[in-house]
Structure formats: C-alpha cells, structure tokens
Amino acid sequence: MRAAVLTAYNSPLLVDELPDPEPGPGEVLVRVMASGVNPLDIKIRRGEAPHAQLPPPAVLGIDMAGVVEAVGPRVDRFTVGDEVFGMTGGVGGLQGSLAELAAVDARLIAHKPRTLSMAQAAALPLGFITSWEGLVDRAGVGTGQQVLIHGGAGGVGFLAVQLALARGAQVYATGSTSSQAVIRAAGAVPIDYTATTVDEYVAAHTGGEGFDVVADNVGGATLDASFTAVKRYTGHVVSALGWGTHSLAPLSFRGAAYSGVFTLMPLLTGRGRDHHGEIVAEAAALADSGRLAPRLHPTTFPLDAVNDAHTAVESGSATGKVVVEPNV
C-alpha cells in the first residue's frame, strides 16, 4: 500500500510503499477513503506533541472513514463492505489513516452516517468525541441550560455548538469578528471576543449570573476567562486544553467545577475504546437526523498532495476541515 510517512520531526511527509497490514484479533482492515487533518497532526509532525507518543518513522492521521475489506477474529459487528468511520490511530504507535489501508481496533469505529460523504464523516471523530466527553460525559448538558462554547467556528467548537443544541441547550459561542457568520450559521448566538469583555457578555446574555457550562477549545487566557464566565455554585467548565499554569481562584470563588478532557487516552492506553465507538455511533445518528454536519475546506487533497493539506492547516488558510483522500 501507499502511505504518507513521517521520517523525521519537522520534515515533509514522504509518500512511500509499505507492506499491507493484516487485521488481528478484534480488528478490521479498512480501505481508507478519507483522512481528516487535525491541528494535532501538525503538532505531531513538528515534534511538538510528546503526549501523542508517535516517534518517527510513523504514519500520521487520527481520523478516518472508509470501507471494511477484511475482518479479523472476534469481530461480529462489521462485515466486508461496511462503510465505517472513527478516530483510529496516528498516536501511541498506532498506524494512522494517511494510507490506503489500515488495520483498526473495531471497538473504535461505527457505521458511517448514511447522509454524509466519506470526507464529511472523516471530519467528525476527534472533534465530536472531544465535545461529547466534555459536554455530555463531564458536564451533562441538557435542556434549557445556557452553554458557552469558546472557539465556535473551529473544528471542535463548530461540532460542540451542534451537539449542545441537539441536547436542548441555549448556545452561545465566541469567535473573532470574521467568524461571527459561521457561528450564527451553526445555530449559536455569536459573541465577538475582540469587541466585548467577559463581564460584558456575561451581563448581556446571563444577567450577570454566568453560563451553566463553558467549553474551552482554545486554552491559555481563554481558559482563564472561562473561570470568570461560569455560573456560581452549579457552573461547570470543561477544557481539552487545560495545560500550562492557571489560577483556580476565580473558579473557586464562584464555587464552580472544572473537568479536563484528554481525548487520546483510549488510543494511548487501550482503556475506554468501546466508549469511543459508542460516541461516533451517536455522531452518526445525529448526522442522519440532520442535526450534525462538519464544515469542510472546499478542496480535498490526494495522498500525493498531503503536504499541501498540512500547509493549509498550518498556515491557517483552510476555511474548514481539511481532508486527504488516500485512495483517489
């Protein structure tokens, strides 16, 4: 098979021939039709994500959608010809999806949404799983709650907005001036963080009480702002980027809660993989009900142009999720 190989950190990916993988017990062999490119993939390529544990040489690509070509022992949920998707590799020493074929743990995948293309399906897993683990598993978002999503036009935030709306919440999302239309199109009330302070938008939208749930997809100063935007006593801040040094005083003085999300843990440890499969199945159900769709960059990339795909993400020129199609 052909695959894009990371031969050294901070170097272009090399498209090369590798032996075809074979599915082991509990695995299926998937012909990869689409591989979503995440900002984390860029950090891994540059050697800036030691938590992902993927030293070169390695095949990158965390998200994928494709067709089952073979089924290993002890797999009964999938058969040859099934269209599937999931967050399946590219970290922790697991082969990623920037390849024509991948042997993946069947616990991590679900049947692809019928109403979405392969490219759309491959754009969902990491962002949706991150959003589900924060909003549903940790914060239990439900009907009538006021939810603030930071970075609502981003790859994770755009999906988080749709998930919170599907759960019955009133959703608000921060973004730059240029992203207000995208946020509004996703169904949230847009907040231009460059033109209004935290205190001002908390006062305007919650009467000064604070949001029931605040989801941080930006980190740094935005996480600090989350601690002052959350509701007293019952509020809950969730973040997938709770790294670095932060003062918990604003959160503590509000009597609110904080939860961290580490989406890679099942891939790195093997624990919780069944739940990731369950979450992407929920994504498929929401997509097929018309309540979930990613925002794609208008151009997809063949495997030979994988470095152009990475450049689009790295440069910030992408206008939606970038997807590589290894078998095109």
Q: Describe the biggest sheet?
A: 7 strands, mixed
Instruction: Give the termini distance in whole angstroms.
Output: 13 Å
Mean pLDDT: 97
Give the class-level CATH name of the largest domain.
Alpha Beta
| Topology order in helix (H) and strand (E) letters | EEEHEEEEEHHEHEHEHEHEHEHHEHE
- The number of helical runs is 11
**CATH architectural name of the largest domain:** Alpha-Beta Complex
Q: What is the beta-strand fraction?
A: 15-25%
Counted beta strands: 16
- At CATH level 3, the topology of the largest domain is Quinone Oxidoreductase, Chain A, domain 1
Q: In the residues, how many domains can be counted?
A: 2
The low-pLDDT segments are none
Range of helix content: 25-40%
The CATH homologous superfamily of the largest domain is named Medium-chain alcohol dehydrogenases, catalytic domain
Query: Which structural class do you get from the secondary structure elements?
Result: alpha/beta
Q: What gross morphology would you assign?
A: globular
Radius of gyration: 20 Å
Domain Enoyl reductase (ER): 8-324
Keywords: NADP
GO molecular function: oxidoreductase activity
Protein name: Alcohol dehydrogenase GroES domain protein
Overview of the structural elements:
With 328 residues, the protein is an alpha/beta fold. It folds into two domains: 2-123 and 266-325, Alpha-Beta Complex (Quinone Oxidoreductase, Chain A, domain 1), CATH 3.90.180; 127-260, Rossmann fold. Helix 3 (125-138) packs across helix 4 and helix 3 (125-138) packs across helix 10. Strands 3, 5, 6, 7, 8, 15 and 16 form a seven-stranded mixed β-sheet that branches. The chain has a six-stranded parallel β-sheet with strand order 11-10-9-12-13-14, sandwiched between helices. A three-stranded antiparallel β-sheet has the order 2-1-4, with no helix packed on it. The two termini are 13 Å apart. The chain has helices at residues 39-46, 118-122, 125-138, 155-166, 180-186, 198-206, 221-229, 249-254, 265-269, 273-288, 306-315; strands at 2-6, 14-17, 27-37, 58-59, 63-71, 83-87, 101-105, 109-111, 146-149, 170-175, 189-192, 213-216, 236-239, 257-260, 301-302, 322-325. The model has no long low-confidence stretch (mean pLDDT 97). The chain is built from eleven helices and 16 strands. It is globular, with a radius of gyration of 20 Å. Helix content is 31%, strand content 23%.
